[in-house]
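Exercise 3.2. Students should predict the tertiary structure of the chain below and write it as structure tokens, then compare their answer with the key that follows.

Predict this chain's 3D structure.
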Amino acid sequence: MAHGKFDIRKLERLNDPGRFESLDPARMWDAIGVPSPREIVEIGAGTGLFASRFAALAPGAVVYAVDTEAVMVEWMRANRPEVADGRIVPVLATETRIPLDDRVADVAVMINLHHELAEPAGTYAEAHRLLRDGGALLVVDWAPGNTEHGPPQAIRASAEALAAVMAAAGFAAVTVHPSLKWHSMLTGLRP
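Answer key:
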């Protein structure tokens, strides 16, 4: 599958709260189904817009906001108030290596990341490594089809393709949730 990295010169687009119209954090949270996580890892957090929402939805949790771009990590440190109070911890990583301990999280999320991955298997393996037994992975990405926005069709993956990558990485009970307008939304559990 081809991929396409986000143009960091368009960083402010990631902060547009209008994104919540098609990417409703409450629906994602319901799909995750982990009522009181202690640690959440958002892989591909960008500016931390969703990390901030997940921190609000899980007031007792710490959110590790992981990105491969130093610009994004520094932006979060300078602009997200949850960083100052320790609720969000920005983490600089590579696509296939996140500098966090094994089994550190109850929940991992990847929102609009899959189409950017050069090595999806490695990223999903990292998500699996980071989750405790019974931990949940949420994957949301642009579905194939005509949409007002989004990446080219050639780099979008079907829900079935996403489910196959999740299963190959060791996730069980992979479930497709049909509740987002332009995106596929799936969950899987680390057995």
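Discussion points: The longest strand covers residues 131-142. Residues 120-130 form the longest helix (11 residues).
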